[in-house]
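Exercise 3.2. Students should predict the tertiary structure of the chain below and write it as structure tokens, then compare their answer with the key that follows.

Predict this chain's 3D structure.
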Amino acid sequence: MKVGLRVRGGLLAALIMFAVPVTATLAVTFVSSKAVAQTAASIVVEGNRRVEVETIRSYFRPGPGGRLGQAQIDDGLKALIETGLFQDVRISQQGGRIVVTVVENAVIGRVAFEGNKKVKDDQLQAEIQSKPRGTFSRPLVQSDAQRIAEIYRRTGRYDVRVTPEIIEQPNNRVDLIFTINEGVKTGVRSIEFVGNVAYSSYRLRDVIKTRESNLLSFLGGADVYDPDRVEADRDLIRRFYLKNGYADVQVVAALTEYDPEKKGFSVTFKIEEGQQYRVAQVNFVSSIPTLDATTLRGFSRVNVGSVYNAEALEKSIEEMQIEASRRGYAFAVVRPRGDRNFEQHTVAITFAVDEGPRTYIERINIRGNTRTRDYVIRREFDLSEGDAYNRALVDRAERRLKNLDFFKNVKIVTEPGSSSDRVILIVDLEEKSTGDFSVSGGYSTTDGALAEVSISERNFLGRGLYAKASVTYGQYARGYSLSFVEPYLLDYRVALGLDLFQREQLANSYISYGTSTIGFSPRLGFQLREDLSLQLRYSIYQQKISLPDYLSNCNNIIGGNGLLAFNPTPAFAQLPGNNYPNGSTQFGATDTSGVGLWCYSDGEASLPVRRELAGGKTLTSAVGYSLAYNTLDNNRNPTDGLLVDFKQDFAGVGGDVSYLKSAVDAKYYTPLVGDIVGLIHLQGGMLNKLGSDLRMLDHFQMGPNLVRGFAPNGIGPRDINPYGTGDALGGTKYWGASFELQMPFWFLPKEVGLKGSVYADAGGLFDYKGPTGWAQTGEVNVAGCRPARTNGPSDVGSCLGLQYDDGNVVRTSVGVGLIWASPFGPLRFDYAVPLTKGQFDRVQQFKFGGGTSF
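Answer key:
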């Protein structure tokens, strides 16, 4: 940084800059020893305009006997200079009196900033100490220039230059102008790791927050050099190794070096890994006579034979200490002790339960929350004023406050209370913006182009409420939704959610019909444990389908005698038994059975679809629940852990339909060789009929979401009428299994975010239980089919009911994929080749999808 002063105003302005150091020299030589006989009352002050005489005299404090000696005068001179109120201070003796001649510092008229585009004036003004109508001080101005430069450094601009300028004005006033050359952001050009053997540098780059600069860095900020972030990365690396069994790990240093040619930093982390340890024993001891420590074994997440995991150890301590508190041992403290066997690389862990100091919480003071209400913060604590101090509960509260995502920084510290057994909890917070306005865009081979505009607020009105409104518009999907969440219903840790939605799915190349749905769904969420959650919900929605006229014209009856009007194709008119002239475009015919002739000539939707169309709107009223178990190391880019989601919905609480639908979805990630991650994905579901018939729309519809390589709605039971649209009917049972290997492209920078995958899928959808036939009404079959005749083709339609294929075929495929964690959101490209398939399945080998907010 370059900081300097440029003064306008000639010789007087130059003296302002250099008067203070010159004065100190003159004062020492000018005052004679005769001044010893003087008193403070004999001091004469000259040159002051704003500072009172008595104020200046007060800096000269008499010595013994009330006299001013040389030492007292020197001290008074230094004190006046240090006030920063004066440009010049001179002391002389005239006629037996001490004369203090001062030249007061100028008054700042205005403070301005020039050249600042990235940081606003208000932010800079709040940081500096030089203020309008304040006293001008050269050292203070230099300090302010350094403060401004530090602000820019925190935003990654290390080549910033700040130059203060002083413009003299009449009446001893000056204008202060800071001219700023902001420079460019100083990025991280390279990140290196030294000493890592167990984990590759590619893998460790996933652990830290700092990123290398690349072409897309302008969409984020993690590539900007931040010393605080680099220091935090050291702790992230250490915790990663401790979680994976390396109890002796040390991140010795994080070396940073600025390269002027590249205009960026090189960051090198030096690591000493040590050996990986496994757990040999887990013991429990207690010094509290009435508390059997072995009864806490069920709260331990550390198991014999497993890899030592410091994170699991910390959670075990927390759970055990909280459980002891619940049992009435409010001051119990759980301390772990590890005995290492350096030869066998094992560790024996002992959880020792002791009686801690009897300390109570006197107060909980919250600082820094300018918008969030106090009660929103206090409810994250499982303790309050007057309770026994429990460090585990305090740590849990701090973690919960961080997870709210309302604050930039959260720190809870303790201060001594009014007595030795009292402590005060200080909660220091720094709030951040919690509102979000986003425009989302995406494209997929299933839904086409899609756009969404949404506005959301995570801390609505400062009360911790969540609210969101969104509108979606695309080629084949449209709608809107309103969501509201109260995370603490009636002051209990129960989340109440309310959703109002309207969706419209248009007909496309995968389905011949459109659906329109409008509904409302309240839900309750319970966090049973950090890795286990439960949701209860109720849904009520109305649904109807739509078809173009040419797909539902079998019932276009003109007269009661069965006279029909339709447009047969020329080819159909020439079918055997059709004695109609070639090229006929409209005709009428009467069938002796009163049934329409050849109504499939221009294509026709499946009978279950037309039944839904004829039935009009359908109301579904359902209650359900979801149970989720999540131990993933990273929800967005997992490499290790298990995610299981089990759902059940019961329809029939009123409404027009009744069923029980169950589904389970499990994903297990595990690191394999190097940076290759294995994924096992299992899923299954069942639909049970309860009372009324099942609708086709209630069935499971599957495609690439079950087995890649197939089209949406591409597998399972299907209408096989040769003159129909071949609609997928869905099934009541499905299963799927997939094994996938995800691997990085080692020849590309980590920051690009590209990974490749190879996979094999298998699955099946079967057992259609929807309607298959309808009774005739009078002489007209409402299904639009006709009995077989000797003078016409019998395969045109059948009064025997729906013709469909429901073969329980195992579908399999293999494929490759490209996964891109792009700044535009997660994108995925898949190319899969089916190995086995049903006779009427539909294939789609390439699939693409993705989108983001911007």
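Discussion points: Confidence is low (pLDDT under 50) at residues 1-37, 556-598, 775-800. The two ends are 35 Å apart (CA to CA).
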